[in-house]
Design goal:
Number of helices: 25
Radius of gyration: 24 Å
Helix content: 55-70%
Distance between the termini: 60 Å
Strand order of the largest sheet: 4-7-3-8-9
């Protein structure tokens, strides 16, 4: 990057150069993950390496340290930026030529493997023997909702094909290369490097916290599995049956109250009612599933927001995806929850107000746990009777009946711990992976360990095989899943705090500003995740609130939620325009569906999107 003399000039030039390099990578990331026309794995690899090289440039780091050493002319805000550049670069500086070579080889192998995985074809067998092509999202939906066990089993067996494919296409070698790279950086292994850089504490500290949660919830898991077997038989414990046993019939009964085509408007109204704004963000939303599309929802930022040296606000640009198949049972509910989740990420990053985009880029040293707390706090509302009574409405506007919510609580609450155990299985699996001696990193060993972890942590083989979890294959999301666990701890602690302080969370206009002031503005800067949670809630982070809710008696949960539901259905849902301070563009791959800047507002863009969904999935048209 260009050499400049003053601190202000240096920071401004740095920000411009970083923003350009970051955007080039993110544009290629989106193109390959969405399988857009002309996408190139080679371009993705080259732009990733360019971003890594930018963040690992020792000349830039030396310049930063020179400004810090002569910091008499720097303002406090400029010192904050310089220190954060130094902190970020220390996560990426690779001293040795060998380390750089290993890193680049690992990333190249990963991109080729993931590109091949995106093109991996799946099919399942219907009850009548017909073989049907399907995406991973459709497979997971049918495992949850198909009435026919043979269909559920066929779909589950297809998800088990992902593991052998990865293991035959370089995944063991990628694990070894990642570990080799981490050791050139002075870490125990790749997992230790990732958690230390992102969270600021070691792998040992990470698993000390996880071990406490695992021990506290193991008895609840065994109790839940025994109850499920007693109520629904031993077959309910089979991995292709468990999700259906817990939600299959309910998914079908509740499905009419989650019409996917209405989900963007519902999301917008819910966030707006809580006082959440996006500060001029341009958001591209690719919400429907299709062949070749990356099999997991995410939100990334081609443009990370920041405040320029002249005080100018540079708004963010976000790419946001979910995986809806609008006429599949359960797809609307899943997609709406994904909108709330990824929209939470987008709201968080849109509101980071610091002097460099480094504070608002989602890679290290950004805390995974902090980022996921925001999205998971907001998607947690989808399970509240106070939210469902307002926003879960059928195509004629009728609210979801209390009887369905009561049944949902009665049937699901005793088994909530099983979701927790499925969540913590991922970090325990990755820990075991990266601790394997290199000469034992074989496909056979990795497959065996995956099954052993599922049985130990989940009580049996998982309905979603560990080797099919997309996070584990990508450099930036591998050794990441513990962040969801710590975030869930923080979510329950934050919810308990807000309930004690306000009584209500849903449609409370004080919630957005509280999140903004306490969790959002600082980005990856100080005070950091653990201190932010402590500052907002008045308590150090712990699993106490989460475990307490899991252990709450079902009868007490039903009683409390019934009161909230009654208040919710008595409150009319807002109408009129939705002001999120956002420019929304709905797309489907290369196709542009609707643009709020051209359609006279967000609500009009949602209406055009709804028409597009109805046209492409005629079953979604209201009767």
């Amino acid at each position: 990057m260009a050499s400049t003399s003053t601190v202000a000039e240096f920071i401004e030039a740095f920000n411009v150069d970083y923003a350009r390099t970051h955007k080039e990578y993110e544009d290629n990331f989106w193109a390959t993950k969405m399988n857009l026309a002309g996408n190139s794995t080679d371009a993705l690899t080259a732009s990733f390496n360019a971003l890594e090289a930018f963040l690992g440039d020792q000349t830039t780091l030396a310049t930063v340290r020179g400004h810090l050493a002569a910091a008499g002319g720097a303002t406090p805000d400029q010192l904050k930026v310089l220190l954060h550049i130094e902190k970020t670069f220390k996560c990426y500086i690779v001293e040795s030529a060998e380390g750089k070579k290993v890193r680049e080889e690992a990333v190249s192998m990963e991109n080729k493997m993931n590109s091949a995985r995106n093109k991996l074809g799946f099919s399942y067998t219907e009850a009548d023997g017909a073989v049907v092509a399907a995406t991973p999202t459709v497979l997971r939906t049918k495992i949850r909702s198909s009435k026919d066990e043979s269909v559920r089993k066929s779909c589950w067996e297809q998800t088990r094909l992902v593991g052998p494919f990865l293991l035959d296409n370089g995944f063991p070698k990628i694990i070894a290369e990642r570990n080799r790279f981490a050791r050139t950086m002075g870490f125990i292994d790749f997992y230790d490097m990732k958690v230390t850089n992102a969270e600021g504490f070691s792998k040992a500290k990470c698993f000390e916290m996880l071990d406490g949660l695992e021990a506290a919830t193991a008895p609840l898991m065994h109790k839940a599995l025994a109850k499920l077997e007693a109520e629904k038989g031993a077959d309910a414990l089979k991995p292709w049956n468990m999700s259906y046993a817990l939600s299959g019939e309910l998914s079908r009964l509740q499905d009419p109250y989650f019409p996917f085509e209405n989900a963007p408007e519902v999301w917008g109204r819910s966030f707006a009612a809580m006082g959440i704004k996006y500060r001029g963000t341009k958001m591209q939303l690719d919400l429907c599933d299709r062949t070749g599309k990356y099999p997991n929802g995410f939100c990334h930022w081609p443009i990370a927001p920041h405040v320029g040296q002249d005080g100018t606000w540079h708004a963010s640009q976000a790419n946001f995806t979910s995986l809806a198949t609008p006429d599949e049972v359960g797809s609307g509910n899943t997609a709406l929850t994904t909108l709330m989740h990824e929209g939470g990420h987008a709201a968080h990053f849109a509101n980071i107000e610091q002097g460099s985009p480094l504070f608002s880029q989602e890679r290290a040293p950004f805390s995974v746990s902090l980022a996921e707390t925001q999205s998971m706090f907001l998607d947690s509302l989808c399970g509240d009777a106070a939210w469902l009574g307002r926003y879960a409405r059928d195509r004629k506007g009728a609210p979801i009946p209390w009887e369905l919510l009561e049944r949902s609580i009665t049937e699901k609450h005793p088994y909530g711990v099983l979701g927790l155990r499925g969540m913590i299985a991922v970090p325990y699996f990755e820990k075991a992976l990266y601790e394997l001696p290199e000469d034992q990193l074989t496909g056979e060993n990795i497959a065996r360990i995956a099954d052993e972890i599922e049985v130990k942590i989940q009580g049996g083989l998982g309905s979603r095989p560990l080797l099919s979890v997309p996070h584990i294959t990508s450099d930036e999301s591998s050794c990441y899943y513990h962040g969801y666990v710590f975030a869930e701890m923080a979510v329950h602690q934050t919810r308990a705090h807000f309930h004690a302080k306000y009584g209500d969370i849903v449609d409370n206009p004080a919630i957005g500003p509280e999140l903004l002031q306490n969790y959002w503005l600082q980005g990856s800067g100080d005070p950091g995740f653990l201190k932010m949670v402590d500052d907002l809630t008045g308590k150090p982070l712990s699993h106490d609130a989460w475990v307490a809710e899991l252990a709450k008696e079902t009868e007490d949960m039903v009683r409390d939620e019934k009161v909230e539901y009654a208040k919710a259905v008595a409150t009319a849902m807002a109408a009129g325009e939705i002001d999120l301070g956002m420019h929304a563009v709905f797309v489907h791959g290369d196709e542009v569906i609707a643009d709020s800047a051209l359609e006279n507002g967000y609500v009009a863009a949602c209406a055009k999107f709804k028409t597009w969904v109805n046209t492409n999935w005629p079953k979604t048209v209201a009767a």
